C-alpha cells in the first residue's frame, strides 16, 4: 500500500504544529526574567521533512525539524519607549507597562528579517498599555526609618512617581516610623 499525498501532507502539518508548540514552550521557559516575547515576534524556520514517496505497509515516517528565533523585549526599555512615544508629559522617571501581556507586537518586516544577519527590526505595538511609575522602595523605606509621622507628606512628595500615599503606624499612638528597615513595609496599589 502506498501513502496518499493528502495523508502525508496532513501528517506533516500535524507534526509541524506539535513542533511549533514545543519550540514556543521552550522559548517561554528560557525567556529571562524582566523580558517578554510576543507570538508574532517568534520566527519559525521549519525544515523540510524528507518525505519518502512510499511507506512500508501502513506506516509512513514523517520527519520535521526546526529552529525558533525569538525577538524578546526588555520590559523596562520597552515600557520607557512606549511612554516616550505616547505620553506628552513623560518625565523620564522609570516606568513599567504592567499589562504587557495584553499588548500585541507585530513584526512588520518578518518576511525579510534574517535573525542571524539583520540588525534592525520593524514592529507595531497595539493595545492599551497601562504605564505605571516604578517606586524606589528601598530608598523610600530608608527615608522613613525613624522619621516623625508628620514629615510623611514631605518625604513622599519627594518621589514624583507616587500619586497618593497613606501611612499606618502601629500602635496608633507612636509618633515616629520604626527604627528598623525590616519593620517598614510598602504596599503598592495600582488602582
Going by helix content, strand content and strand pairing, the class is alpha+beta
Report the principal-axis shape. elongated
Please give the share of residues in helix. Answer: 25-40%
**Number of DSSP helical runs:** 4
Can you write the helix and strand succession as a string? Answer: HEEHEEEEHH
The portion of residues forming beta strands comes to 15-25%
Number of strands: 6
Biggest beta sheet summary = 2 strands, antiparallel
Overall mean pLDDT:
87
Main sheet strand line-up: 1-2
Low-confidence stretches: none
What is the oligomer described by this structure? Answer: single chain
Specify Rg, calculated over alpha carbons.
27 Å
Report how far apart the termini are.
66 Å
Task: Please provide a brief summary of the model.
This protein has 191 residues and is an alpha+beta fold. The chain has helices at 5-30, 75-86, 137-144, 152-157; strands at residues 35-47, 65-74, 95-97, 104-107, 123-126, 131-133. The mean pLDDT is 87.
Amino acid at each position: 500500500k502506498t501513502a496518499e499525498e493528502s495523508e502525508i501532507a496532513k501528517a506533516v502539518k500535524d507534526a509541524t504544529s506539535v513542533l511549533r508548540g514545543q519550540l514556543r514552550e521552550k522559548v517561554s521557559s528560557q525567556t529571562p526574567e524582566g523580558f517578554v516575547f510576543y507570538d508574532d515576534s517568534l520566527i519559525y524556520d521549519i525544515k523540510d521533512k524528507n518525505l519518502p514517496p512510499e511507506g512500508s505497509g501502513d506506516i509512513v515516517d514523517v520527519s520535521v525539524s526546526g529552529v525558533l528565533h525569538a525577538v524578546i523585549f526588555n520590559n523596562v526599555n520597552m515600557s520607557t519607549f512606549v511612554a516616550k512615544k505616547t505620553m506628552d508629559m513623560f518625565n523620564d522617571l522609570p516606568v513599567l507597562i504592567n499589562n504587557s501581556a495584553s499588548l500585541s507586537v507585530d513584526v512588520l518586516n518578518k518576511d525579510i528579517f534574517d535573525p542571524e544577519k539583520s540588525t534592525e527590526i520593524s514592529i507595531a505595538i497595539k493595545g492599551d498599555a497601562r504605564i505605571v511609575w516604578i517606586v524606589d522602595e528601598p530608598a523610600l523605606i530608608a527615608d522613613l526609618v525613624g522619621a516623625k509621622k508628620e514629615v510623611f507628606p514631605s518625604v513622599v512628595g519627594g518621589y514624583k512617581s507616587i500619586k497618593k500615599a497613606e501611612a499606618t503606624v502601629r500602635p496608633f499612638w507612636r509618633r515616629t516610623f520604626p527604627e528598623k528597615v525590616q519593620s517598614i513595609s510598602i504596599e503598592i496599589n495600582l488602582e
